[in-house]
Description:
The protein is of the alpha+beta class. Helices cover 16% and strands 24% of the residues. A hairpin with an 8-residue loop joins strand 1 and strand 2.
Amino acid sequence: MFRRLAPATDNLADISRIEAMLRDRFDVDQNEIILVSEDAGTKPGFPPIETNMLFWKDETRYRLKVFAKVADVTDRDLPVKWLLPSLEDTGEGDCC
């Protein structure tokens, strides 16, 4: 009934790796939810692929976007820990 709108890729290992990096960088508890997806870029002039990350910490939702494939995201793409408040998802428009 449900299917991906993008071509199928075997990126579960990379998604798990990014989840672990987020938990480590921002001290996200194992009971908190982290969502990682590789999506097609939709804005003209931006890269065609982006990695979107949503996560919760202490009941606050955070959002981060990296303009790269999931397989290419490294810990250097994540902001330093003290920038966590700037990632808070306020529900306003898209971040980029």
